[in-house]
Amino acid sequence: MSFKDDSDFRKKLENSDNRYGIVKDIGCQARRLAEEYENNIFHSEAISHILMGTKPENKYYFSDEYEATQIKEMFCYIDDVSVKNAVYDSFYASKQHSNLIYLYNDITDNPRKARVRILTRRLWYELCAYRKR
């Protein structure tokens, strides 16, 4: 089922004998689509994809277990707690916005800021490469 816009969907609902069944069907399909993407897409986004007959574009989706392992492994080699915190905050802000974002927290000197950028970028692309396999 795919619709060009909301008006097509509304027409189908108006002409249907079982409106609630159609809505329930779409909800179930959207839930399955979200689960297929490990619930890394919003259910509202999944509903839009079901209604339009499209698939979500390749965003950066991560497996939580693999992600935690990679972060833990990387943090074994970082002694500076401020850098660890900044990399952690930067990574999760980037994940939330699906785009690289650097948060330095209380770090003011340029060499440590550069280290935060390098480590965050390394972690980000390592996990993105994992998900694209």
What report would you give on this structure?
It is a single chain. With 133 residues, this protein is an all-alpha fold. The protein has 2 domains: 6-52, no CATH class; 64-132, no CATH class. The chain is 67% helix and 0% strand. The chain has helices spanning 6-14, 19-36, 43-52, 64-75, 81-97, 110-132. Helix 2 crosses helix 3 and helix 5 (81-97) packs across helix 6. The longest helix is centred in the C-terminal third of the chain and has 23 residues, at 110-132. It is elongated, with a radius of gyration of 21 Å.
Keywords:
elongated, 133 residues, mainly alpha, 67% helix, single chain
Strand tally: 0
Distance from N terminus to C terminus (CA atoms, Å) equals 29 Å
State the major sheet.
Answer: none
Mean pLDDT: 83
Query: What class, by secondary structure content?
Result: mainly alpha
Q: Outline the low-pLDDT stretches.
A: none
Strand content: under 5%
The share of residues in helices is 55-70%
